[in-house]
Amino acid sequence: MCRIVRSVTLADHQSPKEKKLVFLTARVHPGESPASFICQGVIDFLVSQHPVAQILRDHVIFKIVPMLNPDGVYLGNYRCSLMGFDLNRHWQDPSPWAHPTLHAVKQLIVQMNQDPRVSLEFYIDVHAHSTMLNGFMYGNVFEDEERVQRQAVFPRLLCQNAPDFSFSNTSFNKDVVKAGTGRRFLGGLLDDSSYCYTLEVSFYSYMTAGSTAPVPYTEETYTKLGRNVARTFLDYYKLNNHIKDNRPTHIQSEDIISPTGDRNNKGNGVSRDAAADKEKDKSQGVRH
Ligand SMILES: [Zn+2]
């Protein structure tokens, strides 16, 4: 569990005409299938009738590219594209011929960044990690200490909302080997008020504050992390006061209805309270 004090004023300098924009990509590494479940969780939540989702849609534009490397996924590759490239090392100068998806997405991001009607504030690229536990983030390193502090706010808030997300595993680096990644390249391209992260999630397990042994991730718990990522923008943008009647903002899976009208009752709910989740899971026979 994280305790945080929000002392930094966020995005308050913006013109009210600018709409905030969050850009999310996943599956640049085709073998990292947990990234798709996270992305699914984000999308299912954002298109649902949940009051938090409705408020987020009113205030924030989400652009989501769920699969940056579809050819690699189709072929069953672990890391590279059809032509053998690790696309997450080619953001600096992607070729329209050799890295077409990357080239197109980069062009779109550059275009959004220049659009005076929107303020591109977040770029999050979702991956899975083969050795670490929990969900965590990588961020960039800046000279400006205030910017460093501002960059840490979103992962701290996510740590409060998602029991499987670890702020202590979150780190900030400028390794030369990561220079061609989306997070590093766009971190240099976008302006000072934007934040670029890699969101990593373990292929295996997570530890929560109360757990004595690692808990294996399931499709449901990956999806749940995605929902928590989405709802954290409500806290980040201080939109809680838009919730009518002081309704609780935690998310239960029965609140999420797919566009086809089916209630998603496969997964367990999303709650800020890990203990309450555990009790609920027990009663629903969910394996943890
Ligand atoms: Zn990866």
UniProtKB/TrEMBL annotation:
One GO BP annotation here? proteolysis
Please report the stretch or stretches of sequence annotated as the Peptidase M14 domain: 1-237
Protein name in the entry: Peptidase M14 domain-containing protein
Q: Which ranges are annotated Basic and acidic residues under compositional bias?
A: 274-288
**Xref: InterPro entries:** Cytosolic_carboxypeptidase, Peptidase_M14
Q: Which family does it belong to?
A: Belongs to the peptidase M14 family.
A molecular function (GO) term: zinc ion binding
Membrane-crossing segments per the record: none
Essential cofactor(s): Zn(2+)
- Residues annotated as the enzyme's active site: E200 (proton donor/acceptor)
Q: Where is the signal peptide?
A: none
Name of one Pfam family that matches? Peptidase_M14
Span list, region Disordered: 250-288
Domain of life where this protein originates: Eukaryota
Q: Which organism is it from?
A: Eleginops maclovinus (Patagonian blennie)
